[in-house]
Amino acid sequence: MERRKVLKQLALAIPGSMILPGVLSSCVDDDDGPEFIFGGKVIVIGAGAAGLYAANYLLNKKVNVQVLEASEFAGGRVRSISGFSDFPLEMGASEIWGTNNLLHEELIAASIPLLDQKPLGTGRYFIDEAISTLEEIQSDGDFNTLVNFIQGIPGYSGPAGSIRTAAENAGIDPRVMNFLQGKVGQRYGANIQQLSMPAIANAMNASESDEDTRVMSGNSLRNFLLGRYSRAIENTKFNTAVTQIDYSDDKVVLTDSTGETYTADKVILTVPISMIKNGAINFSPGLPNAKIQALSRMEMSACLRIAVRFNNNFWGHDVTRIFGQGEIARYDAAGLGRSDINRTLVATVFGTTAQFYGAAGSAAVNNVLNDLSEMYNVNANQLLNKFDIFDWTAEPFIEGGVSYPTAAGDGMDGQRLAEPINDMLYFAGEATSIDGNFGTLHGALESGKRAAEEVLETILGPEEPE
Questions:
Q1: pLDDT value at position 296?
Q2: 149 φ/ψ sector (left φ>0, alpha ψ -120 to 50, else beta)
Q3: Is residue 102 within 8 Å of 213, Cβ to Cβ?
Q4: Cβ neighbours of residue 304 under 8 Å, at least 6 residues apart?
Q5: What is the mean pLDDT of the chain?
């Protein structure tokens, strides 16, 4: 793809006035010389965060790389829309979790301003038919028991099962159970009755990234990806859905949905696990049993996001999040610190609720309006200015939110899925995180780097002893 097409994708993502010079710095050729000679070819399947990073990394090492992307644009589960309010609105990945990870390092390297929203406000909690501040609810015994339970998750050593089951066994009162969904379920992209307690405990222990969150103050994550990894996009063939991976010989042969074939020495597969589990890609020979078993203990929950903008802010300009008691466990004040008017709330639902809302179409916004009306004793419908709904489950080539370990999982299945096959077929994507960072953008980037380094290692061969 030519540079002007890369810039066109950037323009579609966000107005040019918001494109920062640091983002586009990677469009300029690096001075990296070849570290080795490799006459073969690497194909990366998928132009999401993991695929873009892996391809860009290898291209900077002078490796011949081609990216095949099933859809018509890059970014995967990073989606940003402009014009909804006075700041770019994230409808996919939206937060930077922690500072000790590759995503944060890349953003700093690209000179992207980041915003810590924590000093700007606190959460609100709807409990006993009233809105409580954090200070008020901290005097509630049931809430404090819940906080202690969440803080104790990394030390969990009990039986396999879901987080909800573990919470019930620990005596968490039903009146605060939905806050557990808002704090842990939303973080890991699934309902707490779906999430594995031992796996989440292992993930919390394995991750080296802290839990402080930041957002981009005036730019979008998709804009960042498209600019930072523009080399990969220049080498991407779009609208190319790979349906067959044959790694039975000394070369890997790929077949797309039109019947066209591609041959590579090595392939990095970065598609969402939903595309593997639903049979969209056939493998020859079939995947090893260890990977099949790992996939059986991993899922991608149905996921839908609703953004609502109101004519005025009725929840408070110092509110970061609103934790509710209904189907919507949490609302995020997406404009806090980013917007001059701060009139936007974002709700994300998973599982059967997401499926129900998806089937309802635009009428799903009524669930948000009714919920907010009850919590704040207002007529939210009359205050509504506009709304937008993005149903990730209906999105072709994605079909869900992020990966999560089911109640049968032990937290190690990402590592099992990440194992290369025959030094030919490599795996990346947030689901393959080996450090407990599944379901995150930084986990996706780190998996892309890991897979690219695995490819380089097989090309260079093992290091000889000194």
A1: 97
A2: alpha
A3: no
A4: 348, 349, 354, 357, 358, 364, 389, 390, 391, 392, 393
A5: 91
